[in-house]
């Protein structure tokens, strides 16, 4: 009996004897693996946004504008601006950069702002427009030259001229329109439109109005003149001279006819 107890004690003390704690550790080791209880998630860059403000800005021709480019990146690696416009000063702070653009003369320009964060580059886009509504639209009083009215409309200090359409309306109908898309100047301009309208009896007393319309890629800017009435008697000097001559000739014919009739009457009375 003593020998049996001694043999059991030696077996328990032997390092090759499996123990419950060691088995649990081996099972735990098989479960955890080298990196801990769960595999480590892969490292990814957090998403970030880029904004530019204002996104749409209209300035007078030759004017300037500030654009602010901001992002949610905590540690931006760099920022840049891409534009064909002339650049001025640059200001910056935590998470933002402001750019100045000078002497804006193109009707429409796209400006792109880019920010790089954790190796990824994102951007935003703004649009800068430059236009000038006409200072005035003036329609001169119509002048009758022979059988035609001369209509003359002046559009002053307008930009861009290449997007301008000048329209003449009589009553509620368009009688003439002209597009100036062939003009590509980059400065303020004055435009004069002259149109000859054949006079008809139904035109007398009708109002005529001149309109200046800027068609700016969906934005329509409309200006108009004060209406002018087509006069019944709008005689030019040549028309007056012709009318006077015609009246004098008619009076002469009537006098001759009257004299002949009187002479014939007196002759017939003397015979009786």
Key features?
272 residues, alpha+beta, Immunoglobulin-like, 4-stranded antiparallel beta sheet, 3 helices, 22% helix, disordered N terminus
Task: Give a brief outline of the structure.
With 272 residues, this protein is an alpha+beta fold. The chain contains 3 helices and 17 strands.
DSSP strand (E) fraction? 35-45%
Could you tell me the radius of gyration in angstroms? Answer: 47 Å
> What is the quaternary state of this protein?
single chain
Order of secondary-structure elements: HHEEEEEEEEEEEEEEEEEH
By CATH, the superfamily of the domain at 136-230 comes out as: Immunoglobulins
CATH class of the domain at 136-230: Mainly Beta
Which CATH architecture of the domain at 136-230 is right? Sandwich
* Mean of pLDDT: 81
**Helical percentage:** 10-25%
Cα distance spanning the termini: 198 Å
Give the CA-based shape: rod-shaped
* Overall SS class: alpha+beta
What's the helix count? 3
Main sheet? 5 strands, antiparallel
Low-confidence stretches: 1-13, 20-44
Total beta-strand segments: 17
CATH fold group of the domain at 136-230: Immunoglobulin-like
Task: Write up what this structure looks like.
There is one protein chain. The protein is an alpha+beta fold and 272 residues long. Among the domains are: 50-130, Immunoglobulins (Immunoglobulin-like), CATH 2.60.40.10; 136-230, Immunoglobulins (Immunoglobulin-like). The protein is built from three helices and 17 strands. The protein has helices spanning 2-13, 20-32, 237-271; strands at 50-53, 56-59, 63-71, 78-82, 86-93, 96-104, 108-117, 120-130, 136-139, 143-145, 148-158, 164-170, 173-179, 189-198, 207-216, 219-224, 228-229. The strands form four sheets. Strands 12, 13, 15, 16 and 17 form a five-stranded antiparallel beta sheet that branches. The chain has a four-stranded antiparallel beta sheet with strand order 1-3-6-5, with no helix packed on it. A four-stranded mixed beta sheet has the order 2-8-7-4, with no helix packed on it. Strand 7 (108-117) and strand 8 form a beta hairpin. It is rod-shaped and about 130 Å long. The termini are far apart. Residues 1-13 and 20-44 have low confidence and may be disordered.
């Amino acid at each position: 009996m003593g020998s049996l107890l001694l043999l059991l004690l030696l077996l328990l003390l032997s390092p090759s004897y499996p123990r419950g704690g060691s088995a649990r550790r081996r099972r735990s080791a098989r479960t955890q693996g080298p990196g801990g209880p769960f595999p480590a998630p892969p490292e990814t860059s957090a998403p970030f946004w880029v904004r530019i403000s204002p996104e749409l800005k209209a300035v007078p021709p030759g004017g300037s504008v500030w654009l602010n480019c901001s992002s949610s990146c905590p540690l931006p690696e760099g920022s840049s601006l891409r534009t064909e416009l002339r650049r001025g000063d640059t200001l910056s702070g935590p998470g933002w950069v402001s750019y100045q653009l000078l002497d804006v003369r193109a009707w429409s320009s796209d400006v792109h702002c880019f920010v790089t964060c954790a190796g990824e580059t994102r951007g935003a886009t703004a649009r800068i427009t430059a236009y000038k509504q006409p200072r005035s639209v003036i329609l001169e009083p119509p002048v009758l030259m022979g059988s035609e009215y001369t209509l003359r409309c002046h559009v002053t200090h307008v930009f861009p001229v290449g997007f301008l359409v000048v329209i003449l309306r009589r009553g509620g109908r368009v009688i003439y329109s002209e597009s100036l898309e062939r003009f590509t100047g980059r400065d303020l301009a004055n435009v004069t439109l002259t149109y000859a309208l054949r006079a008809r009896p139904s035109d007398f007393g009708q109002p005529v109005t001149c309109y200046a319309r800027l068609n700016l890629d969906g934005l329509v800017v409309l200006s108009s003149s004060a209406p002018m009435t087509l006069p019944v008697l709008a005689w030019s000097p040549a028309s007056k001279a012709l009318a006077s001559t015609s009246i004098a000739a008619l009076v002469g014919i009537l006098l001759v006819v009257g004299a002949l009739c009187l002479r014939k009457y007196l002759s017939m009375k003397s015979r009786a």
